[in-house]
Amino acid sequence: MAIIEVVKYDGPAGVFAWKYPNQELGTWTQLIVNESQEAILFKGGQALDSFTAGRHTLSTANIPLLSNVVNLPFGGKSPFTAEVWFVNKMNSMNVKWGTSAPLQLQDPKYKIMVGVRAFGQFGVRVDDPRKFLLKLVGTLPLFDQETMVNYFRGLLMSNINELISSYLVHKKISILEINAYVVEISKHIQGRLASSFLDNGIELNNFFIDSINIPDDDPATVRLKEALAKKAEMDIIGFTYQQERSFNTMEEAAGNPGNIGAGMMNTGLGLGMGFGLAGPAAEIVTRMTRGISFDDSAGSATASGTHSKSCSSCGTLNPADARFCTGCGLSLQPVPAEGTICRSCSKPVVPGAKFCPHCGESLIIKCTGCGHELMPGQKFCAECGTRAVNG
Question: Which SS3 state, helix, strand or coil, does residue 30 take?
């Protein structure tokens, strides 16, 4: 094979490292290195002399390391074999990445597992060509962007789940709020992965997360969105979820008279008071309990529509027609006020009654002077001063 006179980079664009296909060189061979490139001579898998941008003659004067390995005569022309690698040191800004499968993340606020997909891009630059060739390239004839992405996808995917999760937990950010923090998360990931890239001779820069997508048909996400919408609705109305559940339970109980027990009802009311019922909530409880009476002998409540009456001594609820308290035996009959006697049958009547419950006689006393209604026991009319007939 003929000895190559001129060696230069003829590979395609977007390549990080490219090996010249011919190894037959000589001390008179011209090596042309373009801007933003670096050429490195390899012999026996060992990186030896390197060359920056410019035109170089591979003489024994500028390949001292290779000369010692090959034992080239100093100052003379001699053929030798060696590999020439060209390394592109320009910034590559459009290395794209993405998760092949959804990442299972736990929402730090709502403690549910949600599958998310992440997409983005990052920029790289070969910082140490020797380390880059020794660690990554090996025996490959070409190391392009696709090879770079395939190699680092494993490194990226093995860390991206932990990096995103740790950031969300530390900042207490919900999955539904994550897109508002993509810039901060991008910087967080770049800072954590930079050292791993440098170990391979590559500088990581401009790491971006373009989007973090939550599948619309994910069951956990659907339930979370529905719950948040319900919470927003209740916040606007002014109720909490516990209060709404209590209202529903007591309304169902009030609509089923055959299964209402005094203990059950008291428990429901106790829960309502514990939840701080007030205003509209108190009105609902009042509406639900109106018209319910209790039969202590049977131990159950009946919605008969008859008002119950409470003992003034022990507070026990008694049927409306009870004459004595079933709890303490106190008489439940109203004590008539002094002088409240029916004029017709002379039987006592309840204070404030307008008609006698015994004979039906009207108990309303009117002034003979002006016709104004008088209170029982009133001796003079407050309007005209006329003396009451029965005063």
Answer: strand
Q: Take residue 74 and report the two structure tokens written for it.
A: 């100093």
Q: State the Cα–Cα distance between residues 384 and 376, nearest whole angstrom.
A: 17
Taking the C-alpha atoms of residue 299 and residue 296, their distance in angstroms, rounded to an integer, is 5
Bridging pattern class, strands 113-126 and 202-213? antiparallel
Place of tokens 């004029």: 343
Q: Which pair of tokens denotes residue 261?
A: 């027990």
- Using CA atoms, how far apart are residues 27 and 174, in angstroms rounded to an integer? 65
Percent of the chain whose predicted confidence (pLDDT) is above 90? 9
In the chain, ranges of CATH 3.30.479.30 domains = 92-220
The candidate with the shortest Cα–Cα distance to 65, out of 119, 15, 130, is: 130
> Is residue 267 pLDDT above 60, yes or no?
no
Tell me the DSSP string of 231-248: HHHHHHHT--HHHHHHHH
pLDDT at 13 over 60: yes
Is residue 353 predicted with pLDDT exceeding 80? no
Unique residue bearing structure tokens 């070969």: 126
In the DSSP assignment, the letter for residue 100 is S
Residues 102 and 215: their CA atoms lie apart, in Å, by 9
The helix (H) or strand (E) run that includes residue 302 is: strand 300-302
Return the CATH number of 92-220, one of 3.40.30.10, 3.40.1280.10, 3.30.479.30, 3.20.20.150: 3.30.479.30
Q: Which long-range contacts (CB under 8 A, 24 or more apart) does 221-227 make?
A: 221/114, 221/175, 221/176, 223/112, 224/107, 224/110, 224/112, 224/114, 224/175, 224/176, 225/176, 227/110
